[in-house]
Amino acid sequence: MDSKVIHDLIAALPVAVIAVDAGGRITAVNAAATTLLGDRLTDRPFVTALRHPTIVQAVDSVIDPAHVRPPVPDPSLSAVESGGYRNRLVISAQGRDIPAEVTVSGLPGRNGALVVIEDSSGLEQAEQLRRDFVANVSHELRTPLTAMMGFIETLRGPAREDPVAREKFLAIMESEAARMNRLVLDLLSLSRVESEERRRPAERVDLSMLVNSVVATLSMQARTGHVRFQQQGMEAPVFVRGDPDQLTQVFHNLVENAVKYGGAGGEVTLALRHIAHEPVLRGPAVAVSVIDKGEGIDEMHLPRLTERFYRVDSHRSRQQGGTGLGLAIVKHIVSRHRGKLRIESEKGKGSRFTVILPAGQDRR
Ligand code: ADP
After folding, report:
1. pTM for the structure as a whole
2. What domains does the chain contain, in order, with CATH numbers?
3. Which of 184, 327, 346 to mutate to test the pocket of ligand 1 (most atoms within 8 A of CB)?
4. Tell me: the pLDDT tens digits for 145-199?
5. Residues with Cβ < 8 Å from 236, sequence gap 6 or more?
């Protein structure tokens, strides 16, 4: 194949490709290879561009199979035709170690080799996130489960004939079971929202009415915590495109948090306002802020607050019955609505969580 054809072919490929001639010199690279390994690769000896002994051996073996034996490929990957080679390796590129799937195959007529490098760091990262998530869920479920098992044992043994202790332990078991139930419901809710995230909801929702009903639902809890609600800008209907159940969940989580964690300030304000042009959403928007005058959140926590199971004070969150998933659910629902969640907080002064949604129900 002539080098112009090879050049055009590899330029069109989305993975990093390097063509090497029979003398071991690089003849062509594509943009993905340049991004991965740096500029000025063409005309250099391959060995100086990618110093990985296994890959170099694989290149030598496809160019000169009579004298160089190929390295042992990964048996779990499909074989490469024409004596090629494929393996998962960690390559060092521009000072970074990158996990990659590398394929080396011969060019027609032993004219050289083609090295294809598929960066798998994204996959590895996703896999790591999945493992962390499973570990976190197990831990969260195990804590109440261990407590319940302990109480069952006590009720069968030392507290068997003690009606006062029995009542007390049953009440604790009930609250631990309720915590597990909340966790399972939140997990299901999160997984549903994530699976629907690409599909923007289409219903017409009156945001004023929705927020008012959330406030009504939480009024008992607020009264118990000596918190007064203030509402601004919700006198008239304000329509957005949305999923009413999910938006209710968003404001329920935010208002409940404001009462739980910011209730010491005695006041929680819900303010709705119209924005003529919201730069990030590139158009008109409606913003609803949930503002408390509580203790606030240290700046260092803000970027991680919407991560699953991230809590500023784990003990306090658990004591308040929190699952650590509330804000993660909020973030995903807001993103499904093509909106934005803004968190502002100052230690000692309070917090402001703002949900910004595109205005006008027909805008895409
Ligand atoms: P949780 O179930 O723990 O409440 P969330 O995801 O709803 O989980 O919130 C995560 C953490 O963010 C909470 O544990 C709390 O530390 C912090 N937080 C949330 N809202 C507020 C608020 N209004 N004021 C102070 N801290 C808050």
Report:
1. 0.77
2. 3-119 (3.30.450.20), 121-195 (1.10.287.130), 201-364 (3.30.565.10)
3. 327
4. 999 999 999 999 988 899 999 999 999 999 999 999 999 999 999 999 999 999 9
5. 208
